Amino acid sequence: MANLLVTGGAGFIGANFVHYWLKEHPHDRVVVLDALTYAGNLASLESVSGNDAYRFVKGDILDKELTTSLIAEEGIDTIVHFAAESHVDRSISGPSAFVDTNVVGTHNLLQAAKACWLDSDDAPSTHRFHHVSTDEVFGSLKKDDPAFSETTPYAPNSPYSASKAASDHLVRSYLHTFGLQVTTSNCSNNYGPYQFPEKLIPLMIVNSLEGKPLPVYGDGSNIRDWLYVEDHVRGIELVLQKGRIGETYNIGGNEERANIDIVKTICAMIDEAFAEQPDLVERFPGAPAANGASTESLVTFVTDRPGHDWRYAIDATKSETELGFSPSQTFESGMQATLEWMLGNEAWWRAVMDGSYREWVATHYGGNTE
Ligand code: NAD
Ligand code: TYD
Measured from the CA of 61, which atom of ligand 1 is nearest? Predict the structure, then answer.
């Protein structure tokens, strides 16, 4: 039995991890620490809230006293560190929060882990600090460049990726200097249930349903590798189970797509869904698909993101051969699952977007999120 501390567990990937872990590892305990920033939604954890193996603590990874006491009191032996500021556009308009949470916050958590696991008489017999990072630390690729491998030099271009790169280096240093048992995974772009609708895929789905413009940055030629979120979660599980201490593992979907192709795929899927499900016309009367028009008519090319990385691609050979990782979803099946989830969970994304889920939290938790 393991005692996990999952930071950022109320965010997109963290919430998917918590759902998965409690289902697949019913004998483990999962303590979530999350500051509930704009990106953290307790509603995403509603279905596990009655589970005795789960506890939610509202708190900041910058709070040294809280993180240290939580690890000690809960007998935490495994930290899975998701908490971060994660949106590139926000890192351009307000980089400081990225340095605070991603760099200083990660360092704080490392210090807390070191205090409880290396400097304490009550340390658990084994421990693991798993750091969840991104492929964006490797910078930008040209068309024919080989995909990022674990040995690709770091070359971050945005305040987001620079702050994640800094945190990756700090994690590494805590093994080499102090002996903390760390692993890191660098993953490509995720999509799926519970993703905040400011990121490309959920934003395009919501705007398509509401008949709002679909803002494509630049000419839409930028390429990302896409992975269905549960496959990322399974990749992290494999690193926890089989990963070698001190190693980093690239996790990816082998699904490179240009942004404009993603947006066109979403448009076609929505047109098809409206043709097959007549109730959608009543539910989303503002959608072009409800009015005999094509969703693609909403595509609007807008000013490019400053310093926009052109291409990311992941070489996941190491995870495949060492850990036995392979994605279970193709891009097509993952997108279908995502659209179905969005159509089936309208209340979730509406509440998240207008902030009213915070009232929901207050009613369900009486203002006390612990
Ligand atoms: P997210 O923005 O959806 O969630 C982040 C969570 O962290 C939120 O619940 C937020 O409340 C919490 N948080 C933020 N600051 C905090 C603080 N100071 N203390 C405690 N909690 C805090 O992010 P996500 O998309 O789920 O990403 C999770 C992790 O995975 C991040 O580290 C990110 O860099 C990494 N990652 C994301 C992707 C992706 O495509 N989304 C891809 C690769 C790696
Ligand atoms: P995003 O989901 O923000 O992830 P990241 O920047 O971390 O890769 O964006 C994915 C791609 O989609 C990226 O190339 C920027 C582009 N994009 C748009 O074209 N329009 C949008 O409204 C958004 C949010 C992103």
Answer: 19
> pLDDT digits over 40-92, tens only?
999 999 999 999 999 999 999 999 999 999 999 999 999 999 999 999 999 99
The string of pLDDT tens digits covering residues 163-218 is: 999 999 999 999 999 999 999 999 999 999 999 999 999 999 999 999 999 999 99
Q: Are 156 and 191 in contact (CB under 8 A)?
A: no
CATH of domain 3-190+229-252+309-327+354-365: 3.40.50.720
223-228 and 256-258 as β-strands: parallel, antiparallel, unpaired?
antiparallel
Mutate to test the pocket of ligand 2, among 135, 157, 199 (most ligand atoms within 8 A of CB): 199
- Among 5, 6, 13, say which to mutate for ligand 1: greatest number of ligand atoms within 8 Å of CB: 13
Residue 330 CA: distances (Å) to CA of 81, 199, 222, 337: 26, 20, 20, 11
206 CB within 6 A, ligand 2: no
Residue 295 near residue 288 (C-beta atoms within 8 A): yes
Once rounded to an integer, what is the mean pLDDT over residues 257-267?
98
- How far apart (Å, rounded) are the C-alpha atoms in residues 61 and 42? 17
The CA-atom distances, in angstroms, between 266 and each of 206, 287, 333, 338 are: 10, 13, 12, 10
Query: Which stretches of the chain are DSSP H helices?
Result: 12-24, 64-73, 88-93, 96-98, 106-117, 159-178, 200-210, 229-242, 259-276, 279-283, 317-318, 331-344, 346-354, 357-365
Q: Is 216 in the pocket of ligand 2 (CB under 6 A)?
A: yes
Burial of 272 (C-beta count, 10 Å sphere; 0-12/13-18/19+) = middle
> Cα of 308 to ligand 2 centre, how many Å?
9
